[in-house]
Amino acid sequence: MIPIQRLSLPEDVSARMTILTKRIGLRDVASGARKKYADNLWDGEGDVKKALREVLRRMAPGILGCCMYCGSCTGTDIEHFEPREHNSLQTFRWTNHLLACGPCNSKYKGTWWKCDEETGEPLLVDPTRDDPFAHLVLNLREGIYRSPTAKGESTIELLGLNLPARRFPEARKRAHENAWVVLHNWGQARRDDDEKGMRAALGLLTLQPFADVWQAMLRQAVLPGADIVMRDEPPWVLPLLRDEELRAATLVEFPVSATPTTNH
């Protein structure tokens, strides 16, 4: 999971969603009429959902628009961060929409919703509102996440980010090794003044699945003790990861700065 900038919707779509939300708010909650009405509206608003999916894909990492939770598969589902089953008024709220793969959306998260009893904060990382790297720390050698926070721990468990059944740890380790190759190619292209080769390498780094692996490498390379923590890296990796030109081109920091909507 990496930080994601929320883009703006087309004005007509945003206006339509505001109207729909107001209509839902007029329905009674206790009788269940509000949820039923919201569900019917959601099922019938094909044009709105098409527009939502297009913008979400531009926001998502990877050339095909990867799942904003696990970062592996192509995102196919419009995910309601706060489930519609919990709050029907969130059905057409743009800030409540993410792009997720089918397993993350249905099998793992589903209608789950839990908040911290003291702060009221959801116990799930929202990459458009939270810095994932404040809650999720990747062990590059093992491809496994750990967390210093309750929100991070809940996110790891809920989405099965370390489950062998999802095969993420092994895939992250492969992504880590692939990054070595691409990084080496970038360094060689720069030494040869090969701008086309440099651009090609950067494209591979930023558009592949598991963007969290590359972002973790960039962050860990400049932390105190990086020489020890990343001692298994090839000797030429750390100097390149600390290269200001490379970092400026590929590091995604939170909050994410504005980018053109044509990206991805």
Explained architecture:
The chain is mainly alpha-helical and 264 residues long. It has a domain at 168-250. The protein contains 11 helices and 4 strands; from the N terminus they run H-H-H-E-E-H-E-E-H-H-H-H-H-H-H. The strands form 2 sheets. Strands 1-2 form a two-stranded antiparallel sheet. It has a two-stranded antiparallel ribbon with strand order 3-4. Helix 1 (11-25) packs antiparallel against helix 2. The longest helix is centred in the C-terminal third of the chain and has 24 residues, at 168-191. The radius of gyration is 20 Å and the shape is elongated. The protein starts with 10 loop residues before the first helix and ends in a 14-residue tail after the last helix.
